Structures are given as C-alpha cells and as structure tokens.
Amino acid sequence: MVNFKRAIAAAALAGATLGFAGSASATTYVCDAVSSPCSFDQGTGGFSNVKVAANSAKSDLFKIAVTTPGQLILTFTSANLTFGSFSFAGTNFTPVSGNKYFFNIATAGSYDLVTNLTNSGSVVSSYSGTIDLAAVPEPAAWGMLIGGFAMGGIALRRRRATTLAIA
Q1: CB proximity list for 138: less than 8 A, separation 6 or greater
Q2: Lowest mean pLDDT among 12-16, 58-62, 68-72
Q3: What residues contact 161, with CB distance under 8 A and at least 6 apart?
Q4: Are 84 and 116 in contact (CB under 8 A)?
Q5: pLDDT for res 46
Q6: What are the helix and strand counts (H, E) for the chain?
Q7: Which residues cross the membrane (predicted)?
Q8: Has this prediction a pTM greater than 0.90?
Q9: How far is CA 107 from CA 33, 72, 83, 118, 138, in A?
Q10: 53 and 60 in contact (C-beta within 8 Å)?
Q11: Domains plus CATH for the chain?
Q12: Any idea what the Cα angle at residue 24 is, between residues 19 and 28, rounded to 5°?
C-alpha cells in the first residue's frame, strides 16, 4: 500500500512539473480549405507570410490532411531566412528556396510538416510554401487501362482484310 501511495505521489509530481513547463516557440497550423495562413483543398494550397522575428529561430508545425493517395509536392520560398532541417511524414530534408520536394503518399491521412528557420537579420522576415497533390491512379484504373489496350489489340488482330478478285 505504501508503494502504491508513493507511485501516485510521484505521478502527481511529474504531472504538475510537466504542466508548468513552458511550450516550445512553435505554432501549429491545420492546412485545410479555410484555415489561415495555411490552406489546402486536396489539389493545391499553401501558406504565406509566416513571420519569423528578428534575430531568432522559429519552428512551425503544419498538419496537412490528404484524402487521396498521390504525390505531394512542397515548395518553399524566402529571401532573408536560413532554412534549417525540415521534416515531412518522418523524412528529414534541408530545403533550398524555390526547389520542389516530392513525397509519395500511399494512404489518406494527416501528415506533419515541421519547419525550422533562423532569422539572423535585424527585421522581421517571412517565408511561404506551396502544397500540390498530383493524383496517382489506383490499381483498378491501371488494370482497366491495360485491359482496354489488350482488347483493342485482340480486335485489330482478329479483323481480317477482305480482298475481292476481279477477273
């Protein structure tokens, strides 16, 4: 019984300590068709003018909900910020402004994009990004396409030319 009371007291102390701990300097954005500054309508979208204070570093979390499988294309731009390590769906990369980054999305779901930037300038700067989703045909669509070509080939092969002999 004494060990149980000690365990409860330790759990309460840990919970209180974590409750008073400060949060990281990050903002979470949900990327959907109506959120601001992040929007995504399952085809295209993005975020713009995400501010980073002068002489500081910032980390942001963008939650991107994808309803269909496909290839997600991310592009980031900024003139005055230094891009640190970014992460999308567990893949780390360091972006270059203006370059496109491709990610294959196999299943629908919510994916996290974590950005880390540094502003070493003396004025507030911002960064922007675009989100595009190129749909990938499902296996059934590929099967129908291949089957259609096969049936067309069979029809052409079976059609025999008729020739008339003129005497």
Answers
A1: 69
A2: 12-16
A3: none
A4: yes
A5: 93
A6: 2, 11
A7: none
A8: no
A9: 20, 12, 28, 33, 11
A10: no
A11: 25-156 (2.60.120.680)
A12: 105
* Tens of pLDDT, residues 83-96: 999 999 999 999 99
The phi and psi torsions of 70 (rounded to 5 degrees) equal 170, -165
Query: Which of 59, 48, 46, 38 shows the shortest CA–CA distance to 118?
Result: 59
Residue 114's nearest CA partner among 141, 92, 133 is: 92
**H or E segment at 144?**
helix 139-158
Look up residue 95 and give its amino acid: P
**Cα-atom radius of gyration of the chain, to the nearest Å?**
27
Q: Give the tokens for residue 150.
A: 């096969």
Q: Examine residue 37 and say whether the peptide bond preceding it is cis (omega within 30 degrees of 0).
A: yes
Q: Cα 75 vs. chain centroid, distance in angstroms?
A: 11
